[in-house]
Amino acid sequence: MSKALALPVDELEDLARRYARRAVETLAEVIDNAEATPATRISAATAILQWGYGRPGGKPKPGEAGEQVIRLTWGNDP
Length: 78
What we know:
The structure is a single chain. The protein is α+β, with helices and mostly antiparallel strands. The chain has one domain (about 5-60, about 65-75). It has three helices and two strands, in the order βαααβ. It has a two-stranded antiparallel ribbon. Helix 2 runs antiparallel to helix 3.
């Protein structure tokens, strides 16, 4: 069963900020987990670095883009 959620960017950012501390703590646990695969640990480290220092080519400059909506989809159904 697939689930989808479409939110305006500002609402998604607000939701993410509410879970930021827990998310970073979880990612740090993954980085420190010797049983996690190297790829998983690198993904966790990359996420933390991008959140802390920004993602190359990240947010558009003011006035460059109109309203943005991000769609999140999870589950196995197409």
